[in-house]
Structures are given as structure tokens and as C-alpha cells.
Design goal:
alpha/beta, eight-stranded parallel beta sheet, 10 strands, single chain
Length: about 280
């Protein structure tokens, strides 16, 4: 994308990215599920500028486990442009949460993604560790970000509804496109979004097993969520695309696909208005 797409509204936000390294300063956790290349803040801000996006949300990646140092450092260096989602559990305290809030954290990420009943990633924090902090998180205007396979969503819904704060499901529920939009897990997500009980990130099209460069197999899932309730959706690049399970996608192409699939006024809501509500950005 040589020049920003004119369809991008002012204040547009990439609501899912990660920063890595430099590893000499921010070493990765042991053990870990993958070892990323360095993808420091400077590279990410350059990407935002190239894509024509005003803002970004850094999500703490599993390669750092519960050491949020790299994420917090990035937030403190670009406070006007960035917000974040941290990872932590029983080791957290009210003082830590307040410190993180001042730095720009606006939520905690729970990792409930399982394969054959086993955790698919080292370094995740289960929902059970975060639940005790729900009252304070709600008071601060935070949300829970949930990484799971949508197949497990119906069973978790009663617990999620008791949290008293927004719950944002990563990457459209991370189900393979072959399961179809009638899959019970995806239908639970679609219905939760439609009723305003859940949020979803219409991101990670390639994580649904869709084929580059058009990712057409993921389009029905995207369109079902947009039709359900565009006011409870956000979008992100997932840059730098850690552990992609296939070719590393191009962030500019992912943005172009989103713009092609999303009509106005939903586009402006998803890229600008909804991130302002969810992450506390000032109005563009």
C-alpha cells in the first residue's frame, strides 16, 4: 500500500498487534511456544504510518508469558497513539492494575485455546485466574480479551456473563472455515455479538485457514458478524503475525480485504468509534 487507502476514516485503529524485542533488552520466556523475530515499537509505528492508521492496540504475546515489560515500554513511549492488553493472573495486585492503567493497559487477556484438551500455547493465563479481578477491572473500564476456539464458547458463556465487563473474542473465534457459519460455537459468538453480550475482533482471517491473498473462505464469518452488530466489533492486523501456520500475511493486504468486505457506516464504527469506546481513546 504505497499511499493510505482513502476509505480509511480519521482516527482508525489497529486493535490487535504485538511488539517483540529487541530480545537483548526484553528476553523471551522459557519455555515458549515460538521464538519470534524482533518486531520493535519503531517498526510498528512505521507500519501504522504506512497504512494510514492513527492508533494501535498492543496485545501481550505468549512468547513473553507474564512479563509485560516490552508491552508497557511501548505504551509509555507512544501514549497518544497506543493502548494495550496485558497478561497476568494471581500475581497481580490492585496497585499493579492501577500502574498498568496509567501506562495505557485497558484489559487482560485470558488464554482458553485448547487442542485435544491441552493448552496450545505456553504462557497463557486461564480465565479462572482473572475472574477475581473482574470487579476492579469493570470499575476501571477494562475488558476481558478471550483467546479460544469458538467450540468452547457455549460452555464458557455463563461465566463470561457474570464478569460484568465487555468480553472481546479474538479472531472471530479462531475456528477453521470448513466448520461453516452454522457451527454451534460460531453461532454462539454471532448471537452474543448481536445481543451486545460479546465483542469480536474481525481479524485473523488467515487463522481460519483461509487462502491468501483474498481469504475468501473467511468472508462469510466476517459478514455474519458485521450483519449481527457492527457496534460490537473491532479489527486488527495481528502484526507481526506470530506463528501463522502458513505464509506470513501482508498487513496492507489484510487491511484492504477488511475495507473491501465492510460497507459504510460499519467501516467507520469498527475502525474508529468502537476502539474509542473500548480502549478509551479520545474522539477523533
Amino acid at each position: 500500500m504505497s499511499t493510505p487507502d482513502p476509505r480509511i476514516p480519521p482516527g482508525a485503529c489497529d486493535c490487535h498487534c504485538h511488539v517483540f524485542g529487541p530480545a537483548s533488552r526484553f528476553p523471551y520466556a522459557e519455555p515458549r511456544s515460538y521464538t519470534p523475530d524482533d518486531a520493535p515499537l519503531e517498526d510498528y509505528l512505521a507500519l501504522l504510518d504506512r497504512l494510514g492508521l492513527a492508533r494501535g492496540v498492543i496485545v501481550q504475546p505468549s512468547a513473553y508469558d507474564r512479563d509485560n515489560s516490552a508491552t508497557l515500554d511501548a505504551l509509555r513511549r507512544a501514549p497518544d497513539r497506543l493502548r494495550g492488553v496485558g497478561v497476568g493472573g494471581t500475581e497481580l495486585t490492585p496497585a499493579i492494575l492501577r500502574e498498568w492503567h496509567a501506562a495505557g493497559i485497558r484489559g487482560l487477556r485470558a488464554n482458553e485455546y485448547r487442542r485435544a484438551g491441552q493448552a496450545a500455547y505456553h504462557g497463557g493465563v486461564r480465565l479462572s485466574e482473572i475472574e477475581p479481578f473482574a470487579p476492579m477491572m469493570a470499575e476501571m473500564g477494562w475488558h476481558l480479551q478471550l483467546w479460544l476456539d469458538a467450540a468452547d464458547l457455549p460452555e464458557l458463556m455463563p461465566r463470561l456473563l457474570r464478569l460484568g465487563m465487555p468480553v472481546v473474542v479474538d479472531h472471530m473465534g479462531r475456528l477453521h472455515h470448513s466448520r461453516g457459519t452454522s457451527d454451534p460455537g460460531f453461532e454462539a459468538l454471532r448471537r452474543g455479538v448481536a445481543e451486545g453480550l460479546l465483542w469480536a475482533k474481525v481479524s485473523g482471517t488467515y487463522r481460519l485457514g483461509a487462502t491468501a491473498p483474498d481469504y475468501a473462505e473467511a468472508r462469510p464469518f466476517h459478514e455474519a458478524l458485521v450483519a449481527a452488530n457492527p457496534d460490537n466489533l473491532v479489527w486488527g492486523t495481528d502484526w507481526p503475525h506470530p506463528r501463522p501456520e502458513g505464509p506470513v500475511p501482508d498487513a496492507a493486504r489484510l487491511l484492504e480485504v477488511f475495507l473491501d468486505w465492510t460497507p459504510e457506516p460499519a467501516r467507520q464504527r469498527i475502525l474508529t468509534r468502537n476502539p474509542e469506546r473500548l480502549y478509551g481513546f479520545p474522539s477523533a
